[in-house]
Specification:
This protein is mainly β. Helices cover 13% and strands 44% of the residues. Strands 2, 5, 6, 8, 9, 10 and 11 form a seven-stranded mixed beta sheet that branches. A three-stranded antiparallel beta sheet has the order 3-4-7, with no helix packed on it. A two-stranded antiparallel ribbon has the order 1-12. Strand 5 (85-92) and strand 6 (97-103) form a beta hairpin.
Length: 192
């Protein structure tokens, strides 16, 4: 290869590496979510019309991820102001509770749905999953039990659970920001 071609290749590689090194800082963006606040005397209502569970083995190494998905509708107390306004799915265990935020699918419309499903990752201590409008307001809940499937304990929906059950009494701590454009996603509910 002649010297001119090598020089051009080295220059192109250097520019590409430089562009890649400079891109991450510019490509990452932090989105800060917000709960929908309601005027006095009003409240958002919601209905869970279905639920499902899913267990997935990670890389064939006998480590399993478990998910519970809720389906239904929400009737907000007022117009959804922007696409950073969220509801969440909360998971409740014996010693902690956490939520996974979801933006309203149809911001600005009177009845946003989550008919396509809103999943949350769960682990064997989780006893309930709820549709929530903030860390302490539960609209509908389902009871979760764990059964031995031979290869892993797997979640099974036992049925509806009262929103004032002691099993869902603690706040579901919800991550209210997400880094987009990079490796971190808002579905990593227990990430710092």
């Amino acid at each position: 290869m002649n010297r001119t071609v090598r020089t051009i290749i080295v220059a192109v590689v250097a520019m590409t590496v430089g562009a890649i090194a400079a891109t991450p800082a510019a490509a990452f963006k932090i989105i800060n979510y917000q709960w929908l606040t309601c005027p006095a005397g009003t409240a958002t209502t919601g209905l869970v019309t279905g639920s499902s569970t899913y267990t997935h083995e990670v890389e064939g190494n006998n480590y399993y991820l478990h998910f519970v998905t809720l389906y239904g509708t929400l009737t907000p107390c007022r117009r959804i102001p922007n696409d950073a306004t969220v509801y969440a799915i909360g998971a409740y265990g014996s010693s902690d509770a956490y939520g996974g935020a979801y933006t309203y699918i149809n911001p600005g419309f009177p009845t946003p749905t989550f008919d396509d499903g809103s999943p949350i990752d769960v682990y064997p201590d989780i006893q309930a999953v709820c549709l929530i409008t903030n860390e302490t307001t539960r609209l509908a809940c389902v009871s979760v039990v764990w059964v031995d499937a031979g290869y892993s304990m797997v979640p099974v929906i036992e049925g509806p659970l009262a929103v004032d059950s002691p099993r869902v009494a603690m706040p579901a701590i919800t991550k209210m920001s997400a880094v987009v454009g990079g490796p971190v996603t808002p579905t990593c509910f227990k990430c710092p």
